[in-house]
Amino acid sequence: MAETPTLFEITPSSESWHTRRRVGFDLETTSRDPRVARIVSAALVIFDDTEGGAGTEYGAEAGALESPTPQGQRVRTREWLVDPGVEIPAETTAIHGISTEYAQANGQPAAEAVAQITTALAQEFAAGSAVVVMNAPYDFTVLQQEALRHGVEFTEPVGVIDPLVIDKQVDKYRRGKRTLTQMCLHYEVELEAAHSATPDAWAAVEVACAQAERFPQLQIPAPELHRLQAGWKIGQSADLQEYLRRTRPDAVVSPAWPV
Description:
Blueprint: E1 22-29, E2 39-48, E3 64-68, E4 74-83, H1 90-96, H2 100-106, E5 108-109, H3 110-127, E6 130-132, H4 136-150, E7 160-161, H5 163-170, H6 180-186, H7 197-214, H8 222-244
Parallel strand pairs: 1-6, 4-5, 6-7
Antiparallel strand pairs: 1-2, 2-4, 3-4
Keywords: Exonuclease, Hydrolase, Nuclease
InterPro entries: Ribonucl_H, RNaseH-like_sf, RNaseH_sf
Domain Exonuclease: 21-217
């Protein structure tokens, strides 16, 4: 396999992902462990600068909302509130604000919601959209496991942009946490109501675009950047595993990305 080029060996392209259709995706769940987590809420936030748009279209009947931005961008959102079918732990309710009782009273059945989410994402993958997901392995693993749980087809993600993987590559030695909240501060992106699916998905797109503006080498087509991130994640996981094994000899960090 060819060696993954370093950031400054990449030549920017006029076909950059960040000037085309961009779709933020985020989940709020019942657990930090993606293998057992159940979806409580989900959001797709679609930024489309092209006339008439491209990719899948979300009408009012699908629960989509459209709103302009100060920059004149066309932004649509689609949200799901989900009854996960299990108790939502108090510690996760404290993070995203959704209780078991509220989800049961107002949420869609999990199987129905998971089918809609996977279908919407599959349409975006097929359309060539850049799908922006902060810490993509978590969200896609949760969705993959939910799809298996409910007998729903899961489409392999393509064209994924992960601001966390990118940040670790372009600014490897920066001190401090790399949570979405901290990255919003670093890249001067406004984040309202952190740990809610729609604001988090929206902010992830804004952070990723800010990264592309700050580092023009990231201005390439989404499939190419997807491939590069997969290589970067392998190196990042190896570095973290080596560090952890100084005190935990059996530590294992998965290099899998985006799922």
